[in-house]
Amino acid sequence: MAPKGILVTGACGEIGQALxxxxxxxxxxRIITADLAPLPEVIAPMVSEHLQGDLLNRLKQLYDYDLxxxxxxxxxxxxxxxxxxxxxxxxxxxxxxxxxxxxxYRSQKYANPVKFIFPSSIAVYGLKDQEExxxxxxxxxxxxxxxxxxxxxxxxYCEKLGLYYSHYMGQxxxxxxxxxxLDFRAIRFPGLISAFTKPSGGTxxxxxxxxxxxxxxxxxxxxVREDTVIPFMAMPDxxxxxxxxxxxxxxxxxxxxxNIRGFSISAxxxxxxxxxxxxxxxxxxxxxRQRQGIVxxxxxxxxxxxxxxxxxxxxxxxxxxxxxxxxxxxxxRSYAKKPSVRTRE
Length: 345
Ligand code: SER
Fold this sequence. Notes:
Order of helices and strands: EHEEHEHHEHEHEEEHEEHEEHEHEHHE
Bound molecules: serine
Strand content: 15-25%
Largest sheet: 7 strands, parallel
Shape: globular
Oligomer: single chain
Structural class: alpha/beta
CATH class of the domain at 75-194 and 233-262 and 299-317: Alpha Beta
Strand order of the largest sheet: 3-2-1-4-5-7-12
CATH topology of the domain at 75-194 and 233-262 and 299-317: Rossmann fold
CATH architecture of the domain at 75-194 and 233-262 and 299-317: 3-Layer(aba) Sandwich
CATH superfamily of the domain at 75-194 and 233-262 and 299-317: NAD(P)-binding Rossmann-like Domain
Helix content: 40-55%
Radius of gyration: 20 Å
């Protein structure tokens, strides 16, 4: 059934902007957005209504909307969350909990399961040290679920909340006629890279920051070591994964959360690609202990075979295609039009 109403929280963020463009193109649904910030001018005409302000203060209003799908993208990312842990908990956990209650209420009242699509993260993994990280290779969903960050703890707990509200809430699954439960689906994203927007507040930000700086001819001091490896993904693949998991029949969803991967790459390889594409790119490495510690606890790669089997996932962009067919042509076009790429603010 085609959705009639879609809510996108965190609409002004990187995923939000890219998702809204895609939804506006591919569906006739009424798109309602929420964010602390006003919508960027180019996005605003694609949206029926924008709720600006703290999500936790707008909840009462949300109970009145006819929603089939919720993309709950609002979050305080890993680096920012380490600086303001209590605020991160409020945004990442309380915000999610309250929105799950909205979805649970609507699912039950109208006997129509609201799809709750939740972006989780590789931050839910916590590897002890480099030795363990190298030995682990591509991790599976249930491995190493011992996050070192506030953000990772928040995401892991919200995955569990999603499972609870979609399967066990009130233990009604034991009733003869259980109420309709919401339909929770989560994807653990690797670091995401867009040619159109720049990230803020995350720890995988060094990859996109380095590439955007090189394209703009600015110098860049990378805050992690050259040998740092984590998985990354092109933004168009991330958006495609969200739409694929939304459209998958419920009986195909055998897990509440799925890994997906694009390509694993070292910070040194980012520099190599940036230098090859933008002659004279000035990139140095000045590791920051705290941020290095965070990426050292994240896996080098993830195993996404369950997403492949359940809902036909496969990334379209490996490292070569990412640079040659997406990032470099798009960013050159984008900087040729205007010198500064859109940022979240
Ligand atoms: N990109 C996120 C961060 O760096 C990880 O999912 O916080």
